[in-house]
Amino acid sequence: MSRRRNFRKPGAGSSSATVELGNQLVAVLVSIPTSAKEIFDSKFWGWWGSFGIHCLALTICSLVYVSFDFQEPEVLINSLMIDEKDTDLTKLVDQEKDIWNINEKVPIALVESKTIIEKINSNDGKRDPLEEMIDRDMEPAPMAVTLDEMDMGEIVEGMEGEFVNTEGDIGAVDRITVEIISRLKEGKVLVAWLMDASGSLRSRREQVIQRFDRVYAELDELAEEHSETLLTGVVAFGEKSKLMTAEPTADRRKIMQAVRDIPPDDSGIENVFSAIKKTAFEYRKFHVKGYQVLLIVLTDESGNDFSILDSTINEVKRTKATVFVMGPVSPFGRNQMNVKWTDEKTKDVLYLPVERGPESLMIENVRVPRWDPKLKNALFSSGFGPYALARLTRESNGIYFMFNDGNIPGPHFEVTDMLEHTPDYVSVAKYHNLINKSPIRKAVLKVAQASSTAGIQPKTKFLAAGIQFDVRDELRSLQKISEFLDRTLVELRTVEQFRDRETSKRWQAHYDLLMGQILANRVRLFNSIPLLNEMYSKPKVCQDGTTNAWELVGLLGTSLAPNNQDPDKKPEASAKAYRKTVEIKDIELARQYLKRVVEEHPGTPWAVVAQQELEFPLAFKWQETFIIPPEGEKLPWDKVPLGKLTEKQKKAKKKFERFLKEKQKKEELKKKLEESLPDGKRKIPKL
After folding, report:
1. Model confidence over 45-66: pLDDT tens digits?
2. Three-state secondary structure call for residue 398
3. Which residue from 253, 169, 254 is spatially nearest to 206, judged by alpha carbons?
4. How many angstroms separate the CA atoms of 419 and 421, rounded?
5. What does each C-alpha distance from 679 to 352, 573, 673, 682 come to in angstroms?
6. Which strands sit side by side in the sheet containing 162-166, from one edge to the other?
7. Cα(first)–Cα(last) distance of the chain, in Å?
C-alpha cells in the first residue's frame, strides 16, 4: 500500500527564499528604462544581465513539480483466537514457529485476539502460481504412523547436525570419545549410554564394552584431578526403559558391568524416544549443576514410538543435551526390511522383519509395477538414517553414525554426494505445508500413497501345466496395472509445468525418475500383452527336458540404452520391433527423463535405479525355465523312462534330489529341536 503526495510551486509564505526572489523582481521591474536610447545605452547592460538571470530563476521555480512516493510496507496479519486466561503467549508463539514466519521483534497487540504481525516487502505481493495450486484439505498421512498419532503442537526449530558413515561401532565409539574429550576441556561432562536391549544387539553391545576399557582409561586421565568431572550412566530400553546405574558413576568397572547386566527384551518393541525423553528429564538436574549432558544411543531400528518425537526433542533441548546415535542406514523409500538371522542350534537362516525407515517423514517413493527382476524386490541404501533419529541428532546438534550391517546390498552412497538430496528434517506441520505449496511434491506423494495400497506387480513366470488359467488371471491383473500407470501419468503431466520451479533436488529426482519409470513400464506392459494372449490361445510345450515353466525375459536390443548392452550378446531385435503398439515420443520421453536423473543426480539411489531402467529391455520373448512345482506334480525328468534320460536331465535330476535331501535334513533337525523344547515350539526372536 503506497500514498503519493504531490507538491506544486509554493505560494506566498511557503519559503523565505521565494519571497526574497519576488521582492528583487519587483525592484527590477520598477527600474525598467523608458526610452529606446536608454535601453541600448551601455550603462544599462548590467541591468539587462541581472534582469535575465532573475527571469530565468523565476521561470524554473514555476515549473517545479515535486513528487514524493512513500512506500509503506504491507502487513500480513495472522490472527490466532485464544483464551488469555488459559494460554501462555510465549508458548503459543513457539508452537506456531513452523507454521507461520514470525518476526519476534514486532510487538504483539492485545485486542480481542492476540495477533502475530509479520512485515513483508510490498514488491513480493505477486502470488506465486504454486500457491494457487494449494489444496487446504489435503493431508498426507505418513506410512508408518498417522497424523493423529503425532504431536502437532510441539514444534521446534532445527539445528545442523552431521551424518557419518562408519565401518562398525568401534570407529563410532572412538569419534564419540573425541567429542567427550573436547567437552571435558570446557567443564564437567555427563555421558548417558542408552542401549537397545533386543537380542539382535547383543554382539554390538559386547563390542562397545570391549572398547570401553581403553576409552575410559584415557578419559580417566583427563578427569583425574576431580572424580566427578566425568560421570556415566547406562540405560537399557526395549518396550520399557530401565536405569542400569542408580546414579551416574566415574567407576568404569561399574559402567561395563551395568552394560553386561542388561536383561534381554524379547518384545520386539523398541521405544527409543521414550527412553531418550525420560533420560533427558532424569539428568536435567546434572545440567543445572553445570554438567554438559551427552546422550549416546545404540540401536538397529528406527523406533516404535515415533509419535512422541517432537516432545522428546523439546525435553532434550530443555536439558541442553546433545544426542549421538549409532544406528542403521535406512532403506531407500521403505519402512520395513528383512534382516538375516541364523539359528545357533539348527544353523537355519531366516530373514526377519525390522523397522529401519523410512529416511523421510513419509514414504516418498512409488512402488512402480516392474518387469525387471532386479528391481522388483530391490533393496537400496537411502544414504541416510531413519528420519526420526536423524532429525533428533540434528535438532540437538549431534551426530548420526550410520552403520550398514550387510543386510542392505548394492552400492554405498557417500554423504557428500547426498547433501543436496537430504530429506526435509522438519516438523509434521512444516512438512505438510511444504507438500501443499508444491504441486510436484503433492503429486508424487499422492501417487506414492496410492501405490502402497495397490501393490500390484506383473507376473513373469508361469508353470506350463495349467498355464492358460494363470495367463488369464495375469491379463486381469495387467488391466489394473494399466489403469494405475495411466492415472499416474495424467497426475504427473498435470503438474509438469511446475517441475523446473521445484527447488529441492530430492523432489526433482523423485519426479523425473517416476516419469521415466511410468513411461518405460507402460511400453513394457503393452509389449507383454500380445505374448500373453498368444500363450493363452496356443499354449507352448516345454522342449528342453529339464524345464517345466515359461518366463517372459527381456529381448536384447530393445532397451532405452542399447549402447550399454553386453558386447558379447548380439541384439535379438531391431528398434522397430517394439514400437508398433506405442507412440515413439513416449519412448523418447522415457529416455530423456531417465537420462536426466543419471546425469543430474550422480552417486544417488535415484541414479542407480534410473540406469537399471534404461538398460532393461522394453520388449520380451518366451523362454523355458524351471520352478519348484506344487507337491504331487511330476517333474520334467519323471515323464521320461530312466534309461532314456539325457545327460542334461540326469544332472538336473541329481541337483534337485540333493536340494530335497538338504531340505529334509533341516526339517528333521527342526523337528528334533522342537520336540526337546518344553512347549514343543522353536522360539523365533522378534528383532
Report:
1. 565 566 666 666 555 554 444 3
2. coil
3. 169
4. 5
5. 22, 61, 11, 8
6. 162-166, 399-403, 322-328, 292-298, 189-196, 230-237, 241-243
7. 62
Element (H, E) at 615: helix 605-615
Mean pLDDT is highest, among 156-170, 304-318, 449-463, for: 304-318
Cα–Cα distance list, 138 to 10, 301, 446 (Å): 61, 30, 10
Alpha-carbon radius of gyration of the chain: 38
Distance separating alpha carbons of residues 668 and 637, to the nearest angstrom: 27
Per the prediction, the chain carries an average pLDDT of: 77
For 196, phi then psi, to 5°, come to: -65, 125
Could you give the dihedral angle defined by the CA atoms of residues 576, 580, 583 and 589, in that order, rounded to the nearest 10 degrees? -40
Q: What is the pLDDT at residue 83? A: 34
* Amino acid identity, position 614: L
Instruction: State how far the Cα of 520 lies from the Cα of 109, in Å rounded to an integer.
Output: 58
- Pair 158, 426: CB distance under 8 Å: yes
C-alpha cell belonging to residue 488 = 499416474
Query: Quick one: three-class SS letters along 92-152?
Result: HHHHCCCCCCCCCCCCCEECCCEEEEEEECHHHCCCCHHHHCCCCCCCCCCCCCCHHHCCC
pLDDT one-digit tens code per residue, 388-403? 999 999 999 999 999 8
| DSSP helix/strand/coil, 155 | coil
- C-alpha dist (Å) from residue 573 to 523, 591, 620: 15, 18, 10
Give the pTM: 0.74
In this structure, the number of other CB atoms found within 10 A of the CB of residue 275 comes to 29
Query: What is the number of residues in the chain?
Result: 687
Q: pLDDT by residue (tens digit) across 623-669?
A: 999 999 888 888 888 888 888 889 999 999 999 999 989 888 888 87
DSSP state of 313: H
Amino acid at site 664: Q
Dist CA 346 CA 350 (whole Å): 11
- In this structure, what C-alpha cell is assigned to residue 23? 521582492
> 464 and 623 in contact (C-beta within 8 Å)?
no
- For 545-570, the three-class secondary structure string (H helix, E strand, C coil) is CCCCEEEEEECCCCCCCHHHCCCCCC
d(CA 320, CA 572): 65
Count of C-beta atoms within a 10 Å radius of residue 114: 17
Q: What is the pLDDT of residues 569-600, one digit of tens each?
A: 667 765 455 545 556 788 999 999 999 999 99
Partnered with residue 110 across adjacent β-strands are: 114
Burial class (CB in 10 A: 0-12, 13-18, 19+), 522: buried
CA distances from 93 to 10, 27, 478 (A): 51, 70, 52
> pLDDT confidence of 486, banded at 50, 70, 90?
very high
Q: How far apart are CA 605 and CA 686, in angstroms?
A: 29
Cell numbers that stand for 5 in this block: 503526495
Query: Would you say 219 and 177 are in contact if contact means Cβ atoms under 8 Å apart?
Result: yes
For 166-196, b/e burial (b = at least 16 CB within 10 A) is beebebbbebbbebbeebbeeebbbbbbbbb
> E-assigned strands of 183-321?
189-196, 230-237, 241-243, 292-298
Report the candidate in 576, 537, 569 with the shortest Cα–Cα distance to residue 553.
Answer: 569
Distance CA 584, CA 647 (A): 47
Q: Enter the C-alpha cell of residue 323.
A: 544426542
Query: Which residues, listed in sequence order, are joined to residue 399 by a DSSP beta bridge?
Result: 162, 324
Q: Write out pLDDT tens, residues 243-268.
A: 999 899 988 889 889 998 999 888 88
Lowest-pLDDT choice from 25-39, 196-210, 231-245, 294-308: 25-39
The letter for the amino acid at 611 is Q
The partner residues of 339 in beta bridges, in order of sequence, read: 352
